[in-house]
Write a sequence for this structure.
């Protein structure tokens, strides 16, 4: 019984039509997977470990026998799970994969095909998706960078543009981190580096399919929390125009205080300890004292001055920063008004093309 194989490009280009089933172990799936895929492991973490050890120490044949012993008793369970999945998927085509499109996915595909469920195998498995991702980062995207010192409400500008159907990618949302030492507060745990890249590649592909004049992203350092923007993509980002919102210090301070004053003292003080070396001992001591005295605004006044210097210094590291940085003067951090200012500038640029 032959099983149809399908290329990763076909799946990605028609993603809404496919239900991707990942039959690797829970650990492999948790580490990184194809976004939108569902985990249905043929072997759990311990079973996979036992089979792998047998393959290395005994023989391929012994490993296969062990695998069949684990697989056989679970076949009815897999069919029941797949039937339940199919009831919720509105007729999507099923694509199975393991790491390289080998024995695990082939065994599951045989089982479902034998039962009468039409299945395709992803050629090359998960590894094919990883290779596809790495190729996406080598492309020259029409990126426009929303820039501005801390408190300029850059993320909110991204959100305002997204609501008006402009192409945007929220790097901080994908990374589950807001970039600074305080960036993890109120955010879910960060994904693995690999899964961050998997999501990022797909986001760029989806936005590029809209054939946009620009894809708006927020100005970030290459490192976002514990994650890093891939080198190839970062090299492209550094060449793109940056639209710097010049907003008064006091307005930005109010914005930051409103955002972070909801967290408790212990959380804020822990963040201060993270940056004591860069902030300076005296500044760190004063910040902690202000937090303990409920003078949050005074604490963040010190922090904002520190981050402003670091932000400007970071911009000026790019040798072409004066050519690619466009200043937008604004009286406040209102993201709706500032998105309008940006759109006016962008519209003029599009008309000049």
């Amino acid at each position: 019984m032959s099983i149809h194989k399908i290329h990763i490009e076909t799946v990605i280009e028609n993603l809404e039509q496919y239900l991707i089933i990942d039959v690797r172990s829970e650990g492999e799936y948790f580490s990184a997977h194809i976004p939108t895929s569902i985990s249905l492991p043929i072997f759990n973490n311990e079973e996979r470990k036992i089979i792998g050890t047998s393959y290395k120490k005994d023989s391929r044949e012994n490993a296969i026998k062990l695998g069949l012993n684990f697989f056989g008793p679970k076949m009815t369970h897999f069919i029941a799970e797949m039937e339940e999945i199919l009831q919720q998927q509105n007729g999507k085509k099923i694509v199975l994969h393991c790491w390289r499109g080998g024995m695990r996915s082939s065994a599951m595909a045989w089982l479902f095909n034998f039962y009468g469920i039409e299945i395709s195998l992803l050629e090359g498995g998960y590894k094919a998706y990883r290779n596809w991702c790495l190729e996406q980062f080598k492309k020259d995207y029409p990126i426009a960078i929303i820039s501005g010192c801390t408190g300029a409400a850059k993320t909110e500008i991204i959100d305002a543009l997204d609501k008006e159907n402009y192409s945007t990618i929220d790097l901080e949302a994908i990374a589950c981190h807001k970039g600074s030492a305080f960036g993890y507060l109120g955010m879910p745990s960060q994904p693995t580096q690999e899964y961050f890249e998997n999501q990022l590649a797909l986001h760029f592909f989806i936005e590029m399919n809209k054939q946009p004049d620009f894809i708006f992203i927020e100005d970030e350092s290459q490192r976002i929390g514990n994650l890093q923007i891939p080198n190839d993509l970062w090299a492209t980002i550094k060449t793109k125009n940056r639209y710097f919102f010049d907003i008064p210090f006091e307005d930005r301070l109010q914005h930051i205080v409103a955002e972070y004053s909801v967290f408790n003292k212990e959380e804020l003080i822990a963040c201060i300890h993270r940056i004591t070396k860069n902030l300076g001992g005296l500044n760190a001591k004063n910040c902690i004292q202000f937090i303990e005295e409920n003078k949050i605004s005074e604490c963040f006044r010190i922090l904002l001055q520190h981050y402003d210097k670091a932000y400007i210094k970071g911009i000026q590291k790019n040798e072409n920063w004066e050519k690619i940085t466009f200043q937008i003067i604004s009286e406040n951090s209102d993201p709706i008004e500032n998105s309008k200012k940006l759109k006016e500038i962008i519209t003029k640029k599009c008309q000049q093309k």
Remarks:
- The mean pLDDT is 94.
- The radius of gyration is 25 Å.
